[in-house]
Structures are given as structure tokens and as C-alpha cells.
């Protein structure tokens, strides 16, 4: 089990008792018990309360909070408070301030306004982490450590002189010789050659597009600095508090700047924060995608939702409240896709500060609210779902996810500003979701065992990736690659020869010219599909054209091709088809892979297999039926043949 000292599905939220008078704390514990809460995250932003002046510690209030929680049978995920450096730190060590790309120095009054490379910040963070670990390692409430909060959320990169020096050290380690750096960064372009390491700067604001290889390296470096900070805290916690797992909350699919494949190798437990984009249609599909990606970085093992919201957030342009039943559907969709714990931001709604209009488990309106009733009902539901904990999800289809390719695709001066990494992944994911095929995300160099692998957008493709994908197809896999993939190497240099250099042999074609579309333009394919954003002039060189452009700048050229290689097949889709218009292509690819979409089920019925359970979430306004035999966990009723899932409801059936 991912939290050995917790014997149930984790349920709770961020608890910020420092925002409330101590008289409120016992009531918090009483209400937590009423809601079935068994785990709360404490102390995330409490540095200034714990260390009001440098080296002066106040733990009495936290002692009391932890004792109260323990007395109520509630376990603690204790946070290191290092995401909110106190004002004294910023003022005593001004070089620890965060500096933006244009040189702007950020002020106090928010959070994460520190330079991740600052030795002063690092030393202070290590000291408070040691203090906490020493004091609470033996506390009976403690079951999990929560390092920092959402690393790099507000300070992904710092551009100060300290960061510049650390970047140069990192580059020396990466390249050894300056000549190697000049070659990797292609500094013959615009006369950017460096004659001395000291001349190299972070990817600061430049009058026009900056060097893309420098920008990529600066992104890599910045992510490493945050990871180094995590490792430092984790190592202290492991040393002083052995046996208690350490986690930190990821922001998967929404945080572009952290490569969570790398992070996941460093944490004891993978955790994620997920917030719906309230105005996006069918946003439960994006939720499923984020949950599948979290499970993937967790290596298929169970993971935790450390934050999601009971209703509206406070930071979107329009903060839309959740619809009836949505809190339950969202939570159980995470559970279906491998989560063994569901926590919210936050337990009790704040009365003040920037987040006072954010929903919570206990809203401003108290217990006479629908949100509270939903929170209590979910706690009770999780009791019945206990047997699901610890089981693993079964997937059908592989899909590549790559942070570096995302970074590279969206740098300056691409053939179209409309190229969007996550949008492409989402379109393919959406079709699979509606076909009831579960996705296993994989690293580009690590194709899965599944018979179908989708590569939605892989602009940056290394030779190693191309080899791995070729082997996958040669060994019988069916591969679907979308446009503008296989174009550049790890330094954003175009692979030699015609596009798509890294993948042209595998795909059996060359792309003579990219033909992106105007913002209001669309084109038609000869199967009736409509596409927009992007077209290409393709010459098949072994591949068979399957669909062609009827109009637009690539009229009459192939739009979709199929190339048998070894025992498998490589498909190429050269234009932007939305999920519905991908239907024809993906059905043919599924047929090649021997996979059958579940056309017998309603498209809005989410269905996931986890261990011996099938979890069905009905997102439609009509009731749905699923052929199934077994016991339904939420109602406790037996089902012999047809499971009835009321509109907006969730059912979990044990089938063994
Ligand atoms: C998260 C953060 C929380 C809270 C929440 C609000 O990004 O970790 O502390 O700010 O957003 O949605």
C-alpha cells in the first residue's frame, strides 16, 4: 500500500488551522470525523508561523493541532512549508528573490517568490525541514511527508545572477567543452558564438526570438534545480524520519515546465493536483487524461489526488460551480484510474486572502450546504469502495507523452502559432475515451505491450525514440503518428534531409512543405472529414495514401497514409482532425491492431477496469445499462446480467 500506515482510501484535504482561532480546531476535527476524513495535509504555507524570525521556532500550535487530529483518528500528511518563504528571509537575503525574464524583481506578499538556485533559500529550507522532521518523526499522526507545494508553479525559472552562475555550472557538466556547447546551440546562427563560459546567460528576454537550443537547455536546467531542491528535502526527511514516505504534489498535464517522468522516479508516492477547466466542454475527459498520465508516471501503481476542488476555484476567468453530482463523478473518476486517495483544496474555506472565493469541503455556508452533504456522502461511499484500494488499472492502448517535445513545439517561430501539444494529445485521447479504450501513457523511448500506440505530436524526436518506435512496429505494433512529428533533435536542429527526418523511413513518406492554414480556414478530406490549422504536402515513399485533401493548399495530396513495416503498420495523419473527424482513421488503425471499440455502450459512459472491478461513470442525462454480473459496491446489490447506472451516477461492480 502506498501509505503503509493508512488502512483505508485516503480522504481529506489541505488543513490550514493557522487561519483560524484555536477554538475552531476541535470543531474541525469533529466535522472531519462526520465527513469520514482520515488524512489532512497540514502546514503547507506555515513557515512564517513556525519560524517567525531566523532560527526562532514556534511549534506549540502545530503540536496541538497534530495531537487534536490524532485524538480524532485523523492522520497527517505533514508539509514542509518551503513554498512560502517568510518576509524576513527575503529581506535578510535579497539575492534569494525571484527575478523574471525581463529582469523584474518579484516582491513579497504572495508565495514561491524565491530563486530556486539561491544558496540562502536552500540553506534556510534545509533548516526548517530538519526542525520539522526532528520534532515530528515520531508523532503518531504522521503517515506521509509532503515536500514543498507544486514545485515551480509560480517560479519555474529564475533569471538572476545566481541562476546564471548555476546555469553555467550545469552547462559545463553537460557539455564539458565550450566547443560542444557552441555546436549543440548552433551558435554560428546570428553570430552567437561563445568564447568564454562567463558570456553565457540564462534565456533572458531578447529583442527578437532567442536561441531555441539555449531555451531548451534553460528549461532543462530550471527543472533540475527544482528537482535538486526536492531531493535535498526528501533526503533530510528520509534520514530523520525513516519509514514515512515522501511525496510532493505534481500538476500533471497542466504544468509544462516539470518533466514528471523524471520526478516520479524520485518520490516515494506519486501525487497529483487536478483542477477542471470549468468552461471546457466535457472537461471530465481532460480529467481522465490527467489521471491516466499520473498513473503512468507512477509506473502503473496507485497514486494520490492531493488536491482537487469540491466546486469552483478562484483563479479562472469565470469560476463556475460544479453541477449536481459532479464532485462525486470527478472524485470517483480519479479513483477508477488508479487513485488510492482523494484530497481537496481545502478543508475549511478561507475568510481572507487571495483564495477566499475558492470552494472547500466545509464552505462559508457551513454544514447547511449541498457541498457539505456531497462531501459527507463521498466519505461514506469511499468506505464501501475500500476493496478497490491497491488494485491496478488495465489499459488497452499506448500513447506517447513527452514534456521536452511539448517545450520545443511551443517555442518561438514555428510554422504556425496554432500548434498546441496538449490539444493534439487530448483530441486522440478523447476519441479513445468515447470508444471505451483505456490509455496507458508511455515515454517516447518506451513503447508499451499494447497493440496500438498513438504518437499525437512529437516535434522533438531523438534517434533513440525513432529506433524504439521502429522496433515497436517491426514487432507487430500499429502506430499512429500525427503531423509535425519527427522534425528536430534534442537541440531543436532539423534532422538532415527531407521532413520528417527521424520518422520518414518508418512512415514511408517525405513532407515537401508544411502548408499551415489561416486562422479561419478549414479543408475537407475525401472521406467527408473537415480539418483545420495544418496541412502538408506529402510524397509517399512506400506508404499508401488512404485519405486525400479535396481542397486547401495541399489539394489532391495525401492527407492520411498507411505503411506496413515488418509485422506492423505505421499510420500518418498530416492534418488537424478533431476527435469526431478522427473516427474513420482510428477505426481502421484499431482494426489493424485487432482492437474493437465498444460501440455497444453509450459514448458518455466512462468505463474503467481496475483489478476485479469495473467502474462505470454515467456523464449523460439519461440512464445507461452495462452488461455485467457481480456485486455492486456502492449499493451493495447483486447484479445478474445488466447493471443499471442512473444518469449522472457511478457504479462499481466486482466481477470475479
Ligand atoms: C493549487 C495550490 C493550492 C491552492 C489551489 C487553489 O495550485 O497548490 O495551495 O492554491 O491551487 O486551486
Question: What do you see in this structure?
Answer:
- By secondary structure, this protein is of the alpha/beta class.
- The protein is built from 17 helices and 27 strands.
- Helix 1 links the parallel strand 1 (10-15) and strand 2.
- The longest helix is centred in the middle third of the chain and has 29 residues, at 212-240.
- The chain is globular and about 75 Å long.
- The model has no long low-confidence stretch (mean pLDDT 97).
- The site of beta-D-galactopyranose has 10 residues, from loops.
- Beta-D-galactopyranose binds next to loops.
Low-confidence stretches are none
The termini sit apart by 22 Å
Question: Quick one: biggest sheet?
Answer: 9 strands, parallel
Structural class: alpha/beta
**How many DSSP helices?**
17
Assembly form of the protein: single chain
Mean pLDDT, all residues: 97
Could you tell me the radius of gyration in angstroms?
26 Å
**Which ions, cofactors or small ligands are bound in this entry?**
beta-D-galactopyranose
The geometry reads as globular
Number of strands: 27
Q: What is the helix content?
A: 25-40%
Order of strands across the widest beta sheet?
5-4-3-2-1-9-8-7-6
Beta content: 15-25%
Amino acid at each position: 500500500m502506498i501509505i503503509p500506515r493508512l488502512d483505508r482510501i485516503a480522504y481529506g484535504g489541505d488543513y490550514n488551522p493557522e487561519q483560524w482561532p484555536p477554538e475552531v480546531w476541535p470543531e474541525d476535527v469533529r466535522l472531519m470525523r462526520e465527513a469520514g476524513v482520515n488524512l489532512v495535509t497540514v502546514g503547507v504555507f506555515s513557515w512564517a508561523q513556525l519560524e517567525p524570525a531566523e532560527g526562532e521556532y514556534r511549534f506549540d500550535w502545530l503540536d496541538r493541532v497534530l495531537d487534536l487530529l490524532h485524538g480524532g483518528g485523523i492522520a497527517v500528511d505533514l508539509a514542509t512549508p518551503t513554498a512560502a518563504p517568510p518576509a524576513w528571509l527575503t529581506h535578510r537575503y535579497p539575492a534569494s528573490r525571484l527575478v523574471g525574464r525581463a529582469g523584474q524583481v518579484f516582491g513579497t506578499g504572495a508565495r514561491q517568490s524565491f530563486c530556486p538556485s539561491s544558496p540562502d533559500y536552500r540553506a534556510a529550507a534545509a533548516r526548517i525541514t530538519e526542525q520539522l522532521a526532528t520534532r515530528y518523526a515520531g508523532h503518531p499522526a504522521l503517515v506521509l511527508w509532503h515536500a514543498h507545494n507544486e514545485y515551480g508553479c509560480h517560479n519555474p525559472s529564475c533569471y538572476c545572477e545566481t541562476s546564471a552562475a548555476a546555469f553555467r555550472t550545469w552547462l559545463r557538466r553537460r557539455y564539458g567543452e565550450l566547443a560542444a556547447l557552441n555546436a549543440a546551440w548552433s551558435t554560428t546562427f546570428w553570430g552567437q558564438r561563445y568564447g568564454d563560459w562567463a558570456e553565457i546567460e540564462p534565456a533572458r528576454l531578447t529583442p527578437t526570438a532567442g536561441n531555441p537550443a539555449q531555451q531548451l537547455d534553460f528549461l532543462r536546467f530550471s527543472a533540475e534545480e527544482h528537482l535538486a531542491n526536492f531531493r535535498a528535502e526528501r533526503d533530510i526527511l528520509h534520514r530523520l524520519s525513516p519509514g514515512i514516505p515522501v511525496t510532493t504534489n505534481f500538476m500533471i498535464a497542466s504544468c509544462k515546465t516539470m518533466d514528471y517522468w523524471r520526478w516520479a522516479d524520485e518520490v516515494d508516492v506519486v501525487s497529483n493536483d487536478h483542477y477542471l477547466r470549468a468552461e471546457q466542454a466535457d472537461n471530465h475527459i481532460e480529467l481522465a487524461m490527467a489521471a491516466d498520465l499520473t498513473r503512468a508516471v507512477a509506473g502503473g501503481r496507485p497514486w494520490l489526488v492531493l488536491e482537487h476542488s469540491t466546486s469552483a476555484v478562484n483563479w479562472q476567468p469565470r469560476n463556475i460551480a460544479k453541477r449536481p453530482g459532479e464532485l462525486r463523478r470527478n472524485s470517483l473518476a480519479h479513483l477508477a484510474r488508479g487513485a488510492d486517495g482523494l484530497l481537496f483544496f481545502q478543508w475549511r474555506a478561507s475568510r481572507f486572502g487571495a483564495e477566499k472565493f475558492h470552494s472547500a469541503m466545509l464552505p462559508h455556508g457551513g454544514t447547511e450546504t449541498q457541498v457539505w452533504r456531497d462531501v459527507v456522502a463521498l466519505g461514506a461511499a469511499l468506505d464501501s469502495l475500500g476493496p478497490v484500494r491497491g488494485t491496478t488499472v488495465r489499459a488497452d492502448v499506448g500513447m506517447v507523452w513527452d514534456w521536452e517535445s511539448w517545450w520545443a513545439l511551443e517555442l518561438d517561430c514555428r510554422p504556425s502559432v496554432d500548434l498546441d501539444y496538449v490539444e493534439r494529445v487530448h483530441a486522440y485521447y478523447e476519441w479513445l475515451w468515447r470508444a471505451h479504450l483505456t490509455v496507458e501513457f508511455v515515454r517516447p523511448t518506451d513503447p508499451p505491450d499494447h497493440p496500438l500506440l498513438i504518437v499525437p505530436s512529437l516535434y522533438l524526436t531523438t534517434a533513440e525514440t525513432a529506433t524504439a518506435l521502429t522496433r515497436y512496429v517491426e514487432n507487430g505494433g500499429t502506430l499512429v503518428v500525427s503531423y509535425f512529428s519527427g522534425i528536430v533533435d534534442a537541440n531543436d536542429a532539423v534532422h538532415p534531409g527531407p521532413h520528417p527526418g527521424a520518422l520518414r523511413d518508418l512512415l514511408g513518406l517525405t513532407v515537401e512543405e508544411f502548408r499551415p492554414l489561416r486562422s479561419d480556414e478549414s479543408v475537407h478530406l475525401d472521406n467527408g472529414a473537415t480539418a483545420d490549422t495544418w496541412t502538408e504536402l506529402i510524397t509517399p515513399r512506400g506508404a499508401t495514401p488512404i485519405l486525400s485533401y479535396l481542397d486547401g493548399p495541399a489539394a489532391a495530396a495525401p492527407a492520411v497514409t498507411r505503411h506496413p513495416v515488418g509485422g506492423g503498420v505505421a499510420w500518418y495523419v498530416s492534418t488537424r482532425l478533431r476527435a469526431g473527424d478522427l473516427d474513420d482513421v482510428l477505426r481502421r488503425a484499431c482494426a489493424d491492431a485487432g482492437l474493437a471499440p465498444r460501440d455497444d455502450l453509450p459514448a458518455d459512459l466512462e468505463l474503467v477496469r481496475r483489478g476485479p472491478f469495473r467502474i462505470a461513470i454515467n456523464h449523460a442525462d439519461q440512464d445507461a445499462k452495462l452488461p455485467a454480473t457481480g456485486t455492486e459496491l456502492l449499493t451493495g446489490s447483486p447484479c445478474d446480467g445488466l447493471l443499471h447506472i442512473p444518469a449522472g451516477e457511478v457504479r462499481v461492480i466486482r466481477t470475479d
